[in-house]
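Deviations from the work plan: none for this task. Representative record:
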Amino acid sequence: MSDSSTTASGAVVDAHHEHPPYQRHHFESVDQQFDATNFAMWLFLLTEIMFFGGLFTAYLIMRNWYYPAFVEASHQLNIGWGTANTGVLIVSSFTMAMGVWSAEMRKKGLLILFLSLTFILGLAFLGIKSIEYSEKWEKHHVPGLNWSDASFVNPASDPEVHKLYPQDKPLAPDMAAKTEMYFFLYFAMTGMHALHMIIGISILGFMLVRARAGAYTTGHVTYVENFGLYWHFVDIVWIFLFPLLYLISRY
Amino acid sequence: MSAATIVQLPDQSTARIPKMNFLTKENGLLSWLLTGDHKRIATLYLISITFFFFIGGALAGLIRLELLTPQTDLMAADTYNKVFTMHGVIMVFFFLVPSVPATIGNFLIPMMVGARDLALPKVNLLSWYLYVIAGCMAIYTMAAGGVDTGWTFTTPLSTHYLNTHVISTGLAIFVAGFSSIFTGLNFIVTIHKMRCPGMTWFRLPLFVWSNYAASILMVLGTPVLAITLVLVVLERSLHIGVFDPAYGGDPILFQHLFWFYSHPAVYIMILPGMGVISEVVSTFSRKRVFGYTAVAFSSVAIAVFGFFVWAHHMFIMGISNYAALVFSLLTMLVAVPSAIKIFNWAFTLYKGSITFETPMLYAFGFMGLFTIGGMTGVFLGATGTDIHLTETYFIVAHFHFVMVGGMLMAFLSGIHFWWPKWTGRMYPEKISQLAAIVTFIGFNFTFFPQFILGTLGMPRRYAAYPPEFQSLNVFSTAGASILGVGYLLPIIYLTWSLKYGAVAGDNPWQATGLEWQTQSPPLTENFPVIPVMDHEAYDYDWLEKQEQKEVASVG
C-alpha cells in the first residue's frame, strides 16, 4: 500500500525527516494530515446536511399542506420521552467534548471514562427511542405495517391523548388519512437519525477498545476529534427534529 | 502531418519503461484489490466504467435497431421501455458521472497539485468498491427483468403503476451516489490541503479547477438524490408516501428533489470534460490558456448557477408561470460561463502553433458538438420553445450532443492524451486519428437527424413511430453503427499498445503540467521528491529553460 515506508525506485530513498508512526506516508506533516482529515469530516457533514435537507423539505411542505392532520398526529408523540432524549443527547455531546479534551490532555483514564459515558448515553437514547417506537406499534401508528387512523377520526377512542388535548376535533377521513404521512415522515426522519446513532455507537465501541490500548493519548487525536464532530452533528440533527416533530404545534 | 508534430519520443532502440512504477511495484490480485494508490484505483475505475460503457452501448444499439422501422418488430414495446431505461441508468450513473473524475481525475489530480496521493486513499478505494457493488445491483436488475421507468424515475409511474425492479435500481443508484460523493469529497480536500509548495490556486491547471467545481456539485447534490431515492423505495415497499398523489403526496416535490441533483449532475458530467479540453487545447497550440482566470472562475460559475436552474426540466409539469420565467432566465445565464470557455479556447488557438494529434482532434470534436448542444439548450431554456420541444427527440439530441458529443469526446481526448503517462506507451497515432474522425462523423449522422425529428414532433420513449419519420431514423441508426465502430477501435488499439506501443518517455507532448515532469508510468508516490511550483500554469518558456538546464547538467 501507499504508506509503506520503502520507496519505489531504489535510488530515491525516503529523503524527508523521521515522522511519528501515525502519520500516513502521503502526507508531508502531521499538521497537514490533521488539517486534511478534519476538513474532510466537515465536508462529509455538509453532505449529511443535504441528505437530511431533502427529508426536512418534504416534511415542511407536507406539514403546510395537511396542517390539521400534522398537528393532531404530532399530539401522539410523548413529549416527556422526547425531552428526556434531548437531555440525554445534550449530555452525551458534553461527555464527547470532554473525551476529546482528555485525549488532547493525554489522560487515558479520563478518555476511557468519557467515551464509555458517551457510549452508554447513546444506548440510552436508542432505548428510549425503542420505547417510543413500541408505543406507536401498540397504537397502530406504524404506517404501512400496522396502521389505523382511529385516533384521528375519533379522538375519544384514544382517551390518553384526548385527555391531554381535549380541543382536538375529529378529522374528516381524507384528512385523517394524511396522519399516516406524518408518521411515515416521523419514522423516516427519526429512523435515519437512529441509524446514524447506531453507526456512531459502533464506532464508539471500536474507539473504546483502541483507547484502552492507549491509541489516542499519544498526541494523535485526529480520530477522536473527527468522531466528535460527527457525534455533535448527529445531536444537532436531533435538536432540529425535536421541535419540528414534537413541539411545533404546542403554543 | 508528421513534420508539424510536437511529439518527442525517446530513441526507441534504447528507450525502456522504468522498471519501478506504480504498475509493477506490487503484483498479485490482492495488491490491486487492497491498494490505496490513486493511480491503481483510477485503473480499476477505468476498467469498470469501460465495461459498463459497452453494456450501455449495446443497449443503445438495440434502441437504434428497434427504431429502424416504424413498427415494434424487434422487441415488444415494454421491452423497449426497459432497454432505454437501462441504457439511461447505466450511461448516466455508471459511465458519465464517474467517467472523467473517477478515472482521469483520480489519476491526475494528486500529480497535478504535486501530492503523493489523494488525501484519503482508503475512502478512495471505498468509493470504487461502492461503485462495484452498485454496478452488481444494476446488473442484477437487468438479469431479473429490468426496470422501465426511464432514468428519471418519474412518480407516481415509478411508485404506483409499474411492476418492474424499481427498488433494486433505486438502491443501486443510492450506492453509486455515495461512491460519487466520496470521490468529490476526496478531490476537494486534496485540492485544498495537499497542494505542493508554490502551488497557489491560480497556478493550478484548469483541469483541477473544473474537477473542483464538479466535486462541489457531487458533494452538495448527490445526497439529495440519495434521500429522494430512499423515499421512492420506501413509498414503493410500504405504499405510503410523499410523492404519490393517490396517498396525498406531491409528484412535483419528487421532480424538485430529483432535478435538484440531476440537473447539477449534467454539470458533474461535463465540467471535468471541459478541464480535459483546456489542457489539450493549450498543449497542442503551445500557448497558455487565454484568460486563465476567466476559465477557472467560469467552472465555478457553472457549478453555482447549476444549482439554480433545475426547474427548467419542469416547465410542462405545472409549476407556476413566474417560477418558469425566473428559471428560464437563470438557465440562459449558464450559457454565459459556457460561452466564456468556448471563446477562451478559441482565443487560445488564435496564433497558436496548432498540431492535430488525436487528443486535439477529439477536442475539436468537443468544441463543435458542445457548442451545438449548448446552444440548443438555450432553445430549451426558453419556456415557449420548450413546450413544443420537450419530450421529443429534440431533447434526446440536445442531451446526447452535450453528453456524447461533449463529454465522451472529452473523455476519449483525455484518455489518449494521458495514455502515455498512464501506461508509458504511445497509442498508434494514425489509426487513432481515424477513430476520432469516424466518431465525429458517426456522431453527427446519429444525432443530428434527431434534432429534425424532434422539431417535426417525434416523441421520445416510444418503440413505434409514424412511417413519415422513417428516413431520418434510418439515417440515425446508420450513424449509430459508424459511431459503434468509432468506439470499438480505441479499445482494440489501446489494448494493443499496452504491449506494442512505442515507449513514450516522460513528456512526449512537451506539456507543462507537473504530471509530465515525472516518469511514465509514475512511481507509486508520484514524485521522488515533492516538487516546488516556481512558475505559472502553462508556461512553455519555463519548460524550454528546464530542458536547456537538463542538457547543461548532463553535459
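Chain B has 16 helices and no strands.
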